[in-house]
Amino acid sequence: WLGEGQTFVEGTHPTGIQYPDYTPPAGYTWEGEWQYYQSGVNEDGSYYHEYLLFDPETYVMKSFEYLYLEPVLTPSSGIPYTINHYIESLEKPGTYELYQTDEKTGTTGEDRSNLDTITIDGFQYNRNRSGGYYYYHPYYDLMLAAQPDNIIQGDGSLVIEYYYDRISYGVSLYADNINFRWYSDMEGESSYTQLPYGSTIDEAPFRDVEIPGYRFAGWRDELNPDAPLLATLPIVTGRAIYSAVWMPRDDTPYTVTHYIMQSDGNYEAALTESFTGTTGATIDTKAIADAAIENNPELFKSVTYRYADDRGHYDLEQNYTILGGGYTKIGLYYNR
Fold first, then answer.
1. Which candidate, 141, 194, 145, places its Cα nearest to that of 166?
2. Against a cut of 0.70, is the pTM above it?
């Protein structure tokens, strides 16, 4: 820029040039120097483009030349800009809420695209949502990533927005009790689902199942099986595998009825006793018979304990297992 009406003779130096008043924009410094642009063809046929420092004492005017000058500006450092980090909402997937704001400084004109992202547990940076996108490049036959222009403005007005999506993790739940299938409305004895980071795991389909003779004891972390049982499941923070555990109750009822042979050869119930024990434990029927005879000598006078079931199996050592729900009912038979 020579200013309106400023002309110089071809082959002379424009030493009398008058410069305009100039104030650099915010974020730049200017030392009063000017530059001009030129382009051309190199000896090898390639093109060159460059800016050169203007010196009126050495520059030689060309015929029919329009000389355009630009101020030599130096970008300032320490220019503030703001970064807002947004994370995906757990309650409203696809929407985002402010997680953190960072105040930073940089150099005017600097592109900060994707340079100030942060690491957040359970989240991953969403390039597309943050202004970047992918496009097809036919020459390379590839999808290439384009970045938003997050250029630091000299006036400190740049605000960058970065978005982070919740990561979903696989959660597997199993029932560690063979009886679960008979008392659950579930199809099968396990479930698998993908849940976003921070989600609560629904325990009800397992915890609320009542298995006779057992009590729900908690959850075993199959990725850390030696750890104590968990009373409740933690929120989702990664891949998880849990087994619902039921422990045998120690107050499961069962009954024993003692049948004594009558004079006609038939057996008649003479005594019924109620007991409690641990589900799955073995019942020593011989010990029960011995105790009944000892505690009721008149009732069991002149009888012999013969077998421990009502199917004609003569076995003094016949034992039973305590079934949950009070389903175990034993008949002990005595001959005269």
1. 194
2. yes
